[in-house]
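WARN retry 2 of 3 for item q-0093 after timeout on previous attempt; input resubmitted unchanged.
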Amino acid sequence: MQKSFYIKIAAVLFPAIFSFFSCSRNSAVSSVRREELFSLKYGSIENQLNLFDLNSTGSIDTGIAMRNGFFYVSNGESQKIIQMNSYGDLLTLYHNPDSNPPPLFDGSGGSSSASEKNISTRKTIDYPFNQPSKLTVDSHQYIYCVEMLPHERQENEANKTLRQVVLRFNTNSFVDYIGQQGPGGTPFPFIRNIYITQDDELVVVCIVNEGLEAFWFNSKGQPLYDIVVKFDDIPNPYEEKSGITLHMEAENIVPDMTSHTLFVKADYFETAVDENSKAQAGISYKGSYVFPLDCSSRKYGEGLPVPPYEEFVADGFSKQIYNLPYDFLGVTENGWLFFTIATERGMQVQMIHKNGNKTLKRLLQFDTENVVYESFHLSLQGIISALLAQKDSVHVVWWRTDSLLDAILKS
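OK item q-0093 returned
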């Protein structure tokens, strides 16, 4: 997730006010302890990353995933994927040998130097990557990674450019690529994200002209559902209650981890009118809802409201409150929906159980001033891992929000 800031605090006389009122008038938001796991240097060898132009927004294709304590980083700029343990030891290198130097180990499960004889599990898997980006991992350690096709292999269909596929690797080799119809299928429209459910089923969420499109595959890669979520078809709870017509956007779709259900997050906006001229002065944020969408019946269930993030901005001796929408990060196997927003102290996460009976807010602190790029991943159990790139190195950290949620469920 690229770093984004919304409204900067204008006053310097009351720096503590923002910290205290970052989410509500009456209570501060507690922090979750961050655990520093390891760091990676910049460079071109196997256990280094190359992010190239860190100041060019949208140009970085580096992402992170975590499964069972193993970390996977796709580095599109270097055309490689690296698998590491929680100490940062390199286990497997998936790379394009034409654009990467030979690894310093022999890649056969042994090592090329006496100093590395104790590392017997390192190996390399060659693949002609073009531009790998988002990735996820299933229970068998199969890696699924979004790949941009070369221009000559891209297709056009109904005003859509089809240029991405999902590569699948096992622990020893490349298996196949998955397209819209499954293995070897037509490329996808632009992929927003990919997910693996508890049953190792792949869900690919794409951005299309009508809204968002979700492709759901079984564990063998065979298609189960192809669902287009159109902006005009999303329920409007504000219109149902008060007759107000609002502009709405499908911000994200995330699959349920245990059933064939999609959670659709919609943000609603109303037209702002200048009081003096009575002319339209833009749009203002009204609120957000998450709707469960049953994949079989294609019907929406009851919407779950997502409370907004409240930004308190000092204006002289008064304060103004701005409501801002959270981003939908993911869902855990226990049914917790995670929403995030960047703040000046790091990232605030709001966790809402899909039953709507429990809500938690916590702050994930990190030095936003020195972080030039960031990527987050939510595990099935509720652990948030992050890749935080600074000027001199890249830090891999996590926040054990899973322990917090387990305590809440048992209470």
